[in-house]
Structure prediction request, 771 residues.
Amino acid sequence: MQTHNLGYPRIGSNRELKKACEQYWAGKIEAAQLEQVAREIRSNHWQLQKDAGIDWIPVNDFSFYDQVLDTCLMTGAIPERYHPLIEKEHLKTIDLLFAMARGYQKNGYDLTAMEMTKWFDTNYHYIVPEFKKDQKFSFFNSKVTDQFIEAKKAGYNSKPVLTGPVTFLLLGKEKEEGFHRIDLLKNLLPVYFEVLEKLDASGAYYVQLDEPCLTLDLTQKEQQALVTAYTAMQQRFPNLKIILANYFDCFGANLSTALSLPVQVLHLDLVRCPSQLEDILAVPDFIRARTHLSLGIVDGRNIWKNNFKQSLSLIQKAQQKIGADRIWLAPSCSLLHTPCDLDLETDERHLTAEIKQWMAFAQQKLAEVASLKQIAADPETPASKTLLEANIRCIESRRSSALIHNQQVKQRVAAITEADARRNSSFTARKEKQQQEFRLPLFPTTTIGSFPQTKEIRAWRAQWKKQQLSDTEYDRLLKEAAQEAIRWQEEAGLDVLVHGEFERNDMVEYFGEQLAGFAFTQNGWVQSYGSRCVKPPVIYGDIYRPAPMTVEWSRYAQSLTRKWVKGMLTGPVTILQWSFVRDDQPRSVTGDQIALAIRDEVIDLEKAGIKIIQIDEPAIREGLPLRKENRREYLDWAVRAFRIAASGVQDATQIHTHMCYSEFNDIINNIADMDADVITIETSRSQMELLDAFATFAYPNDIGPGVYDIHSPRVPSKQEMVALIEKALHYIPAERLWVNPDCGLKTRGWKETKRALTEMVNAAKTLREKI
Ligand code: GLN
Ligand code: ZN
Prediction:
């Protein structure tokens, strides 16, 4: 039985890579220093994986930015706009890579960055490859062989990792009409041959090819592409042993294709899909083929300790059928999606010892893989027994802990009725009452919630956390900020005001900190994109709301003005989606618990006189399961969770929701089902095209399509916004249109915010006169 790892978090236990990259971008260190930091990170990570008892250690999982971008460089898939940087400017590869990832504004160039999007159903973003009809590929960058040789020289038993050719193509985008990117396989394969040849010549034994596209609904042609690619690679390099890695879901309808591929080792994600083990072990051809199975049993997407007993039962099942020789053990997917090291969590105020003992980060997960191998090899040795018993104790402690289980919460969830998830009246009836109540003009103007989180505000928060600023003082400063924001919004003539969210560090963390059942780490960082990391809260127990969370802020803001102030909450699905969640109950149950907590808050806001309440759900789209067959179930409970949160109020109370840019086409009926009175969405960059889905579906409620992009400091003109709203009028009648920016303004400065919003209010006024 062998152990291996699919990938290690490259950012470093203390985010060394993040810090070094940012220093390099700021011109504070040289390329050579950055390379040095990178070499140290790699060598530390190889060593710690070896020390943990991993037999085959991944190389080339390291990246300065993203593994898909690295694959673009490896295969020479470099969009034309960057060619002058190579040919004229002779940029170093590392600078070219950063130019592609972040754009390039220097020496008279103004090159946009490549697009970025979410990696399957994770919160990691990859760079989207750009393909042309006559796309040429050529071996351009030798990072994979260089790093393999680097590891080999240092004496590690290493295994190069590559994004597989089919997944690479499928993750890309056609940048012109008239072809499908999968047709490029024949041009691309020769580069993979060249890479494999070089690896072969450098002494590589195993090569891991990641093909998580196997979790998607693949067409016949795409499945055939896998067969073509892997047959060709095997024929050319009979001595190289290919590990084909699929993760994040079952093989589904691709199973027979996957099993037919001539590879040495097939990796399965048994955390997301434990049932596929039996399916595979029941295929006689597979048993005869002598393919090895890599059992991904340790969860690479979450932070909980592995349940050894459960894992061992899966291992034994496989062992009985195919023998230990054909079994590999591994985390379910690359550990890129977990924080590095639980041992760095030393502050009991963050994570109590009781909760900490239930958890494992990347480093601890590798030790688990090695322990499982040891126990599976011989469960009867004293060492195996000790390991197993210690694990059982932890699992048992978590199962029965009073910290986790709250009967009242469980009963409340069980007692939810359909009526709890439904407003009292239809939208039409509600709208009439709301109009009488609010008397808003046509094209009402509002914002999405946050105003600039200035350096000052962040400094206050940091001081307050260090107890250098008292609660009262911190409170006073934030109230002043809210007061100024309200004053300014009144002056600018906005119709529905917000308090500005100055008291919030992050839209999920802020609520998690006030809800029971959440814990926070000090150092549990996970790469989101490039040097950006997130530190998701940990949901460990039953969730409830011990006390109102936002009511005081909203009440205070409302007391300052005669205009309507909108209350601002994060929705249950987004809180769930951006946290590490419990693995001891379905996500839907945790979702319902959060929904009830938010519902309580909504009702309390209403009682405090806040009659317009926004429940943000930017993450509802990203929670969508990869395979179509699983989507219905998710959408049912996700939409219901939102409705539970939103439906405790009177007809005359107006519920808003907000979503950032996402493809709505395939879920527009579910969005409509959420039945928010008003939905604001990000649309300005798509020139309102997104509204097409809403119009086609005849989306019935009010919509606020974003009229300007908040990601850049650029101030849009009134005319521009008038034109956009006029475009929106082709899709949505004036009586149902709101006017607002694309998203919150927390990353912007006040200067551009004020100018842009003033133009926006004027745009709405101009339109009112025109109509
Ligand atoms: N209310 C939040 C804000 O304005 C919404 C953020 C988001 O959509 N991601 O910042
Ligand atoms: Zn948004």
The longest strand covers residues 292-298. The radius of gyration is 27 Å. DSSP finds 29 helices and 22 strands in the chain.
